[in-house]
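quick q for whoever's on today - can somebody do inverse folding on this one?? i tried earlier but teh output was garbage lol. C-alpha cells:
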C-alpha cells in the first residue's frame, strides 16, 4: 500500500472515531426502527409541462423549473431510494428508444420565452431558472443546444436571474456535458456516498458506473456546488464510516460549497427515514474541518 492509501485509512479512522453526539446516535437508532406504515403514502406527481413553477426552493430561491424530460414517466440514469418521484422505470444512459418522448429544443425555447415574457410583464420575482424536472436533464441528446438557447433568452429578458441545474452527476465524465454545464451560473451536482457499493445501494445507477470517473469529472468542473442527501433506515449514508468515505471524495473534488440535506418529501423506498438536524450539522462541520470547504445543512 502506498502512503496515500495509508493516509486515507487514517483519515477514515479519525472520522469514524470523531465523537458522534449522543443525541445524534439516539435519533439515528430511532429512525432506523421507523415503521413505514407511519409515513404518508404518496410521492410527488411528475411535471406535465416543459416549464413549471416558479417554486420556492430552499437552495435556489424563487426558481422557474425547466423539464426537458418526458411528461409521462421519469427518465433517469439513477433509481434513488429517496426519489420524490417514485421509482425509475428503467435507469438508463442510453436514450435512443425514448427520443420520441423528449421535448425538442425549439419547443423548449418557445415555452421558456413565453414564460419569461409573462414574468417580465407581471414583474414576478425570480432568483433562478433551473434545469431539473422528471429525471436527469443532461441525458437529453440536445442538452448543449438547449442550454445555449436558454442562456440567450435569459440574457435577453432577465439577465440578473441565475441559470442553474440540479444534476445527478452521472454524465459529468463526458466532455460535451461538462462544456454545457460550464455555461450555467450554478451547477448543483449530486454526490451522496464515497464508495461504489453505497452509491449502488442508495442511487441505483445505470451501468456502467465508475465513481472514480464521476469524481474526476466533478473535480474538473468550475465552482461545483455539491449536494448530498443523507438518509437512514434500510440503507444509511449518515453513519461515521460512510461519512468518512464520502468526505475523502469531497476533499478530492474541493467544491465551492457543499449542501447537506435530508428527506423533504415521501421517498420511493418507504423504509427510509430522515436524519435529524444535529446529524446534518455534524456532517457539515466535518466538511469544513476535514475538507476545508464551506458547508450548509438544510
Ligand atoms: S437522480 Fe434525482 S430524479 Fe433521478 S432517481 Fe435520483 S432523485 Fe430521482
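ok took a stab at it. sequence:
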Amino acid at each position: 500500500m502506498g502512503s496515500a492509501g495509508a493516509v486515507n485509512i487514517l483519515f477514515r479512522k479519525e472520522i469514524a472515531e470523531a465523537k458522534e453526539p449522543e443525541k445524534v446516535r439516539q435519533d439515528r437508532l430511532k429512525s432506523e426502527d421507523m415503521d413505514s406504515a407511519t409515513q404518508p403514502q404518496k410521492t410527488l406527481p411528475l411535471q406535465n409541462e416543459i416549464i413549471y413553477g416558479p417554486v420556492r426552493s430552499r437552495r435556489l430561491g424563487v426558481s422557474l423549473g425547466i423539464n426537458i424530460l418526458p411528461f409521462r414517466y421519469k427518465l433517469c440514469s439513477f433509481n434513488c431510494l429517496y426519489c420524490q418521484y417514485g421509482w425509475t422505470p428503467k435507469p438508463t444512459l442510453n436514450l435512443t428508444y425514448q427520443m420520441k418522448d423528449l421535448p425538442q429544443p425549439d419547443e423548449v425555447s418557445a415555452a421558456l420565452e413565453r414564460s419569461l415574457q409573462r414574468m417580465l410583464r407581471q414583474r414576478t420575482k425570480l432568483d433562478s431558472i433551473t434545469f431539473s424536472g422528471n429525471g436527469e436533464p443532461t441525458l437529453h441528446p440536445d442538452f448543449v443546444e438547449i442550454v445555449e438557447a436558454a442562456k440567450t433568452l435569459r440574457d435577453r429578458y432577465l439577465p440578473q436571474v441565475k441559470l442553474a441545474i440540479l444534476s445527478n452527476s452521472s454524465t459529468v465524465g463526458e466532455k460535451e456535458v461538462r462544456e454545457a454545464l460550464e455555461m450555467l451560473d450554478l451547477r448543483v451536482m449530486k454526490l451522496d456516498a464515497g464508495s461504489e457499493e453505497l452509491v449502488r445501494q442508495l442511487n441505483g445507477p445505470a451501468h456502467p458506473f465508475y465513481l472514480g470517473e464521476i469524481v474526476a469529472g466533478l473535480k474538473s468542473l468550475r465552482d461545483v456546488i455539491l449536494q448530498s442527501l443523507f438518509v437512514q433506515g434500510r440503507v444509511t449514508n449518515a453513519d461515521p464510516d460512510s461519512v468518512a468515505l464520502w468526505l475523502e471524495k469531497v476533499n478530492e473534488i474541493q467544491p465551492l460549497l457543499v449542501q447537506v440535506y435530508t428527506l423533504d418529501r415521501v421517498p420511493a423506498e418507504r423504509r427510509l427515514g430522515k436524519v435529524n438536524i444535529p446529524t446534518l450539522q455534524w456532517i457539515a462541520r466535518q466538511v469544513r474541518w476535514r475538507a476545508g470547504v464551506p458547508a450548509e445543512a438544510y
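fwiw The chain has one domain: 3-297. also The longest helix spans residues 105-122. so keep that in mind when u check it
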